[in-house]
Amino acid sequence: MQYGICKLGVIPVRFKANDESEMVTQLLYGDHFEIINQQGNWLQIRIAFDHYEGWIDQKQIELINNNQFETCMNQVFDCSADLIEYVQLADQSLMSIPLGSCLSGQFVFKHQFEGHNNQQLIDQKTAIPETAFMYLNAPYLWGGKTPFGIDCSGLTQMVYRMHGYVLPRDASQQAKEGDALSFIEESEPGDLAFFDNDEGNIIHVGIMLKDNYIIHAHGHVRIDRIDHTGIFNVETKTYSHQLRVIKKII
Question: What is the mean pLDDT of residues 203-221?
């Protein structure tokens, strides 16, 4: 088995092995993976954190050995905690890394990081809303995972990762986690709300806040009202999403 690690701030992971293919997710600095196939300069990978699969350009990554891979696995929740941080490279130049980047990369590459990490957030459910607010107003981007472009399940996955928990990548997968609540009044800030379409498929997810508000990515990361029907958009005076279930993950 071959292994690799993301050596840049963020790179696209695509559905097929070409630059024109849909981006299905992203790798952030320090994210590591197994290589399961290769087509020319393109590598099919399985991301270690969530086992998501896709294709990346091999020019944007570094190959690592099994020992380095295991070191990264042991530090999978060690993340940068500011919107933008920097690592100093071997040539003394700086490279920017986005919120939630995996800091195991600094040990593999012998980079220097002197910013803030997320260790004070681990297992702190009450701080989940505050972490989610760091993504507020980020534009919606299918497959995105950074404050400069993110989708609904990318938001929930990244916020939970910052607090030491693994969520699958897609909303439909995340909906299989945790325990369902019977009433919205039972929810706590940090619980996840899932929404379906007319066919009953889960298509959206957001993070519950206090007083029947929710933060979610819809056009951009925003805060809206939520009730038993779903998410109410005060700007359009309509429900944008219909509620399926609220689940307590932590």
Answer: 98
